[in-house]
Amino acid sequence: xxxxxxxxxxxxxxxxxxxxxxxxxxxxxxxxxxxxxxxxxxxxxxxxxxxxxxxxxxxxxxxxxxxxxxxxxxxxxxxxxxxxxxxxxxxxxxxxxxxxxxxxxxxxxxxxxxxxxxxxxxxxxxxxxxxxxxxxxxxxxxxxxxxxxxxxxxxxxxxxxxxxxxxxxxxxxxxxxxxxxxxxxxxxxxxxxxxxxxxxxxxxxxxxxxxxxxxxxxxxxxxxxxxxxxxxxxxxxxxxxxxxxxxxxxxxxxxxxxxxxxxxxxxxxxxxxxxxxxxxxxxxxxxxxxxxxxxxxxxxxxxxxxxxxxxxxxxxxxxxxxxxxxxxxxxxxxxxxxxxxxxxxxxxxxxxxxxxxxxxxxxxxxxxxxxxxxxxxxxxxxxxxxxxxxxxxxxxxxxxxxxxxxxxxxxxxxxxxxxxxxxxxxxxxxxxxxxxxxxxxxxxxxxxxxxxxxxxxxxxxxxxxxxxxxxxxxxxxxxxxxxxxxxxxxxxxxxxxxxxxxxxxxxxxxxxxxxxxxxxxxxxxxxxxxxxxxxxxxxxxxxxxxxxxxxxxxxxxxxxxxxxxxxxxxxxxxxxxxxxxxxxxxxxxxxxxxxxxxxxxxxxxxxxxxxxxxxxxxxxxxxxxxxxxxxxxxxxxxxxxxxxxxxxxxxxxxxxxxxxxxxxxxxxxxxxxxxxxxxxxxxxxxxxxxxxxxxxxxxxxxxxxxxxxxxxxxxxxxxxxxxxxxxxxxxxxxxxxxxxxxxxxxxxxxxxxxxxxxxxxxxxxxxxxxxxxxxxxxxxxxxxxxxxxxxxxxxxxxxxxxxxxxxxxxxxxxxxxxxxxxxxxxxxxxxxxxxxxxxxxxxxxxxxxxxxxxxxxxxxxxxxxxxxxxxxxxxxxxxxxxxxxxxxxxxxxxxx
Length: 896
Hints:
Largest sheet: 8 strands, antiparallel
Structural class: alpha+beta
Strand content: 25-35%
Strand order of the largest sheet: 19-20-21-22-29-26-25-24
Low-confidence stretches: 1-41
Mean pLDDT: 93
Helix content: 25-40%
Distance between the termini: 64 Å
Radius of gyration: 33 Å
């Protein structure tokens, strides 16, 4: 509630006498706006008053009125008549009543009405109260909405869609066929058969069949009603029938036909609630007053149930990142916006959605944790619908109110645009598979889980076009490429495809995109050699838990990379890979038990041990004493510091530094499992990755190892003394090799995930140090060269000065040397460093030096060995991330 007080005015007797004379002659005692007639009043003669409104923010369609409560609070003995007017308001907005009689604190209902001529938008106006020379005012935020339809289908969009229909585009043909398929059938109530045969319609899974059918029919109606009302009529009637069946009130008595709003903790609101709002808006002129009342009354009940602390609130409402919350977020937006002017609760619902759900919860959370895109619930799971439900409301607010939440000056919400870069960067080079982290479900399709859903790309493409993003042409080209590569796998529902896909949209070459990407919110990194379908590609993630911990769809893999060449994986996300067929459902259960099973002292129950990360176990013989692995730890609840603190792409290399990974680990009784873990990755284009880890376990009595997951059984090869080389062939294609350089003399154990599986789809290699030191350094090279003969020979460098370590990669297609700090992570290496390597032309990459600082590099060659010295001060300058890059010829000449 917002209150503004104007101080006591001077009391001059002859002024009041004059006012009384004017009143007797029919004059006005107070001033009103141009849209309110002047009304005779009895002015107060002493004291002052304040005004306050509740709510002080209103949304209403042009031509309709909306009530709000006005409280006049007198002081200093004030009483009398207060005349009301609006100032700083556009022409055409009126209030009623025009006067309030005040004797003590007085609360009345006033109605604000914008004329049909008022331009939609959000206006900051003042409500002025005047009584003689005494006045006060209070602020009012008024959002004037479009007439129906106001959600998505504004005049411009309808004109575009009608032109596409006239051109008989493939998307229109598909939509019209879907609409025709239900004509003549029966629509079942939610409690009746959910899966009847066409032309009949049932709810499907918790309303999953209702929503697309409703929006298909309603869109067909809206597209045709202006040009061919006769053809439009059956579609409109069918849509109304669906909407009324969906909105049948739920009762607990016998004979109930309505859906329970709390079925599955509110899951169904993503279908029913969104349908209530969009259906009400798109079919407004076809609904009787009684039908409208049924829809918004049922809609209000669903929102109340979802927000009730005894309903879904303690589970899915509590945190603004989950597929459940996304469905509620979309539903509340469309219900509030669509039913304004009819629904007495709509204004309060809109105020809560805008100021609480959006500005207080979603906007800050998504700008912090999902900046750059992403979705932590699996892209072969809830991601496509979650992205839609967190994107379309922003467009719906724009079309209904003219408010642009994307470009908010103080609180921008860029997620609907950021997601475009994310999905392009995290799709495999082959274009037929997506980075399969987090929950993915087994299916019966010929294409495996992880196949990109074309619907997601179609929806994003349409939103980029609507918001006039410069990325739209490239994304249109990418959409075409993914559609072809996946044989149009899982396309959008017909209404959405017709809305979002422009067959004549401009395109631009995909290879104009950058070769690497950081989504800082989730700490997600993607990098590739090029934009061909055979490129080498990496994904990586290091950040706090982002998903609602109670939802549990995000997995426990912070710090884990995945590596692929084209469509052939070397290092896999085991949780996503295991649910492939055959036996996908059985392995999905194994993955669930591994992540969430009740701990019983065995390895595969509740230990979250299937990721490409560092593990520490507290063992008693073969029995696990305490659950290990990572937890659902967040910044907000657990002060997690885990993040990608270094990222850059120089062209020749990509550098990634992830710190405080230890914050994600569950502790053991009496001590932490992992006291410290920092991971660095240097990607040497086109095909080699050097991974360097510095770890500290909580006790030397614990079992520590580094885990790596492969899609086929790795085969040992020949490696230099103290190292291990494993080669992997998958589907008769050489996928690549892994070499363990540090710790020297590490032991390897290969375990199928899961024991007893037939066939085995994932093999986990566990790398253990030869000692029980709590502090360890691990240096591992992954080589994705297209043939085994091109795999580099990796040997440690000999360090002669400085707190560094490193490796030389010798290969027929070029040599590389990579140097890392052995000191405290995040602390630049100080002083001079020196190391020696076999004399050969090579590129050198040194990390964790002073950033943006000059260094001198000198090389001396003797007896087939090059001694390299790097000293502060000189003409070779480190990057902003403290990485120094230079080349050394076989003769020892240094160049940048």
